[in-house]
Amino acid sequence: MFMIFYINILILTIQGCNSIEVADKFRHTTTNKGLSNDADHSISYKHSDNSEVVEHNSVVITSFKKPNTFELKMFFKAHPVQPFNNVIFNPLLAYYRVKDNNNYKREWLTYEHSSKLFYCTFCLAFSKNSNRFTIGCQSEPRHLYQRLCEHEKSVDHSQCIDSYLLYSKQKDLYNMFTKEKQAEKCKKRAVLDRIIETIKMIGKRGLSYRGAKNAEAAYTLNDATIDHGNFLEVLILISKFDPLLKDHINNAVLKSSKFHNNNKVTGKKSSGRPGSLVTLLSKTTADYIIEAIGQLMRKCISDNINEAQFFSIQIDSTQDINVHDQLSVIIRYVNTNVNERLLGFVRCISGKGEYLCKLVCELLKKNGLDLNKCVGSSTDGAANMRGEYNGFTAWLKKEVPEQIHVWCHAHILNLIMTDVTKICIECVSFFGLLSSIAVFVRESYLRMNKWETTSKYKFISIIGETRWWAKDRCVSKIFGSFHNPKDALFVDIVQTLDEIYNTPNFTSDVRFKAKVYVDSLLKYETIILSQIFLQIFSSTTPLSLYLQTKGLDIFQAYKMVKQTTNILNEQSRNFENILEASNTFTEWANITFNDRHLGLNIPREFAEHRISRKKIMAGEISKDDPTINQVNKYRINVFNVIYDQIINSITQRFSEHEIFSSISILDPSNFVSTLNLSHIDIAKRLIKLTGILNKFDPSLTVGTFTDEIKDFASKWPKIKQLADNDDDQENVLQYDDNDEDNEEKIDENKNKCKDCIVCCFKVLQIYNLHSMAYSNLFLAYKFILTLSCTQVRCETAFSKLKYILNRLRNCLSQEKMDTFLLMNIEKDILQNIKNEDVIELIANKSSLLKNLLI
């Protein structure tokens, strides 16, 4: 400290400046803005009458005591303390001095309200000697203002001002000694910031990050012929346009090369880098970053789930490329919106329901989630999932008896469609024919060339067993849409097969198969069956896609199923519409055949078959009365069978859940009928739901719940109208600048649904009606939206799993694979992860990294 004063005196002597004038010149420097801009986020401070304490890393530092060197930054953040209320002196005379008719604030003066003493912040921080303003000056007005003027003119105070100016400019001895080290740390953190962003990009895109063997050492980075892997290659590419990263990589290569060459000379066999060389480019650093990102993402997801009052679980399992069974766990919860987040993948060594339940419970506990907040689960129909006694659901009910299990609606619909396409021999033959043709064309490049020449490079689909939309896509591509064959590939396929049949270069068995396929496609029965399934798919495919929507609520899904069932019922006995569509398709195909001079034709009637009659045995009176009309025969044996199967399957499999009686009252489309019910009738239907919600709100009663529903239902038309008006105002404000696009966007917003459970939930939330007036109703809506009716998000995660863990990259550890899946699936959370938080976690990995980065 003596050295600092000595240097300050020399500066003043050389410049010949008065210290007060210097203070006036640098008046703005003496504010907090003069401090370093490096925000220390671990610092928090507050004042009681602006005079309390500063807190840093849980160490409390008294504001009016002499600070240590490392505490100066916090000290000057807390000072000066200059209260204007409840003081016995004139604040304007004390805190300001007048010079040349200008007021200058005394930035050095600070006041402790509890002891009623004045202090000089500069002298407290830098003075070696004690004076009146370091031990505390009395605040009596009698001699106060004179003491302030005397202190300002003192040599000791002038030296402290100079010390502060040097400190604020970071030119004091401490900063001069540590400046180079701090600059190096900032440089390292900047480099690490670029590395973290690179790994985020790799994780977001689902790319591999490791390179070839022995190609990740720093001394090999200047060799462009080596595959260093995506991680290092991207950094090398960025370094071509980033001087900071380029300089870092060059230094790392130079140091690593010296170490490597030295080992060659001495004959030492050493692998890896020297212990003191931290390049930040090694796989170890990359692993640290991946681990830190995964830790922060899981914490963010867990925190969001814990903010919600309850959640539901979706689980499913699949085998990865290593033939390991991977269990996907998705959590559905509601905060401001409905969210479905991947919690993680867990490797299974057993498929038993008890074991799966144990894995899920352990995963929830590991992430700090309370199992008692689980209100529901959704699984597929496998025995180990929904078995009545030993399935996952049965074991979960033992842990949480109130939870509601829902069989995945999307899986149910897929099973129904699978059963329908196999209900009769005609259906099996039809889809077998389409799949065989696709395989036949694609298994040879010569046949594929014929197809590409005819179809102008259009794609022909193969029917996959696991793709829910595969059959619909295949039929639609070949036969177009129902009643509209304009975009069908039917004629192209027939032409390709006919050319293969008539080309001598193909083998006889290939030509024979082509002829069989052509004859099968040109049957009238094939055309009729295609129109039957096109009509069915026009209703079931939108339902299937809707059931795969993220955030779908259970009641809306059930209503969609009911609507689809009603449509299928209307179609089930209208065979004439199928005949009309078939004749339209046949006419279009025959015209196209004639235009292309193919010499082919589709008959517009069924092929005649010999009618088999049962022989009348002796003593029998009844006679066999076979159906002679082929149209009626097809209607009875194929059309009616297909529709009866799909309608009965939907009715049986999509059985109404017991909770639906309570949910239906809360549906705004039923509010009119709800108002006509008595309080007792509503209360009876709400008993089940109220019992579940009581766990989360003990004050909830059936009576208050019933009153809220009746009141909200009566006011819903006005509330709905208010919401519509607000949407219109938002449209005017939001789209005022783009006149061309305004019309489309406004129309889209006006057509938004206002008669569903989601809309009611949002209205209660937006207008703050959930806090007091309709708190119970809001809780009920939140509970309904939390229930999962599908576990399609698990299937989506499986698609990502096959992409992350593939034939070329199958050695990832379970935890690292889980983190890469989180980065690839939950991209919005990944982008919100702060690099500073990642760096803090990395720095705590070792003392060496802490010295380099903090």
UniProtKB/TrEMBL annotation:
Domain spans labelled DUF4371: 177-391
Keyword Signal: yes
Domain of life: Eukaryota
Stored InterPro entries: DUF4371, HATC_C_dom, RNaseH-like_sf
One Pfam family in the UniProt entry: Dimer_Tnp_hAT
UniProt domain HAT C-terminal dimerisation: residue ranges: 761-821
UniProt KW keywords: Signal
Signal peptide: 1-19
A GO MF term: protein dimerization activity
Protein's recorded name: Zinc finger MYM-type protein 1
